[in-house]
Design goal:
Pfam families: ETF (PF01012), ETF_alpha (PF00766). InterPro entries: DHS-like_NAD/FAD-binding_dom (IPR029035), ETF_a/b_N (IPR014730), ETF_a/FixB (IPR001308), ETF_alpha_N (IPR033947), ETF_asu_C (IPR014731), ETF_asu_C_CS (IPR018206), Rossmann-like_a/b/a_fold (IPR014729). This is Electron transfer flavoprotein subunit alpha/FixB family protein. Keywords: Electron transport, FAD, Flavoprotein, Transport. The protein is built from ten helices and 16 strands. With 330 residues, the protein is α/β, with parallel strands linked by helices. Helix 9 links the parallel strand 15 and strand 16. The longest helix is centred in the N-terminal third of the chain and has 15 residues. The structure holds flavin-adenine dinucleotide.
Length: 330
């Protein structure tokens, strides 16, 4: 069965989010071999549209303004998405399970009187339709859900759908896709406007999308204790995270907190340094592909879920690791 799927793509500080390419991969699966994947992107045509086409989208629909779709402009993003849905009439809409996706997906579903399945980590064919897997109870269990009617609204968790490199996507195909642009019409009718956004200092790499995370807990003993972790993260081109214990102790900002009441992450490599492995922390990182734990207590619960465990002092182990990684050929 072929379907038409719309991906709502997202830019973060002018850069296309990785999860948007992953959403295209999920959309391709839902569309079927002869289906169509459209992507909605803020602002005039540019290289981001080319990236979406190269990742498997058949066409890109642009909004007039660059800041039409962004976390600070939920209403505006919602209106842009609703307008694209009105014009394109897709069978399903796929978004990243990001701050923006979480904000607009349920509103979009309500407007369309559609069902929504959030935080999807896997999609499997099931008869004529699909089963969508999502974690529940803070990752302690998984449920499979199906839609009974179209349209579908789906948000996908970052790092679970590898982006596609459309084999043989000739530049001519890409150009043809970009040529089939639609422009959303008119100024949105907004009930609120954003007067300003105060940015908190955060790492270069977004935690939710990072492929490698080096996390620190109360064992780092202070803000300075995060320095060797930041160096290891940099050597691995990753991001720094933290347990709530470290955040509560004032060693780092709460924006780094991973866990039940923090961010949920699924990197390829998670290195937990001086973190005991409380259930609330594990809820946010147990989906990581490979978990390495560094803890001086051999009985620490984190070792029960770790693929590799190092019993030792993080202040000795982490710099040694960084040194070895820096020695590896680039
Ligand atoms: P600790 O439990 O104190 O562990 C520190 C670890 O560091 C110990 O295992 C120790 O052996 C090790 N260590 C000490 N020194 C060194 C060293 N030099 N080298 C190596 N290892 C060393 N927690 C979260 O993380 N995220 C959440 O989202 C979250 N949500 C919560 C929600 C609720 C409702 C509640 C009640 C709690 C929540 N918590 C959360 C808190 C959670 O229960 C734990 O208290 C917290 O995760 C502990 O943080 P920690 O592992 O850094 O500290």
């Amino acid at each position: 069965m072929s379907r038409h799927i719309l991906v709502v793509a997202e830019l973060r500080e002018g850069v296309l989010r990785q999860v948007s390419l992953e959403a295209v991969a999920a959309a391709r699966l839902l569309a079927g071999a002869s289906g169509t994947v459209s992507a909605l992107l803020a602002g005039p045509p540019d290289s981001h549209g080319q990236a979406l086409l190269a990742a498997g989208a058949d066409r890109v629909v642009h909004t007039p303004e660059r800041d039409d779709i962004g976390p600070a402009h939920t209403e505006r993003a919602l209106q842009a998405a609703a307008e694209a849905v009105g014009q394109l009439r897709p069978d399903a809409i796929v978004l990243g399970h990001t701050a923006l996706g979480k904000d607009i997906a349920p509103r979009l579903a309500a407007r369309l009187n559609a069902g929504q399945i959030a935080d999807v980590i896997a999609i499997e064919p099931d008869g004529e339709s699909f089963a969508f897997t999502r974690p529940i109870y803070a990752g302690k269990a998984f449920e499979k859900r199906m839609f009974t009617e179209t349209p579908w609204v789906v948000t996908i968790r970052p790092n679970n759908f590898p982006p596609l490199a459309r084999a043989g996507a000739a530049s001519a195909d890409v150009a043809a896709g970009e040529a089939a642009l639609l422009a959303t019409a008119g100024k949105p009718d907004l009930r609120t406007v954003v007067r300003g956004v105060m940015k908190r200092a955060a790492g270069k790499t977004d935690l939710a999308e990072a492929k490698v995370i080096v996390s620190g807990g109360r064992g780092v003993r202070g803000a300075d204790g995060f320095k060797p972790l930041a160096e290891l993260a940099e050597a691995l081109n990753g991001a720094v995270g933290a347990s709530r214990g470290a955040c509560d102790a004032g060693y780092c900002d709460y924006s780094l907190q991973i866990g039940q009441t923090g961010k949920v992450v699924t990197p390829e490599l998670y290195i937990a340094c001086g973190i005991s492995g409380a259930i609330q922390h594990v809820a946010g990182m147990s989906g990581s592909r490979v978990i390495v734990a560094i803890n001086k207590d051999p009985e620490a619960p984190i070792f029960k879920i770790a693929d590799y465990g190092i019993v030792g002092d993080l202040f000795e182990v982490v710099p040694l690791l960084t040194e070895e990684i820096r020695r590896l050929p680039a």
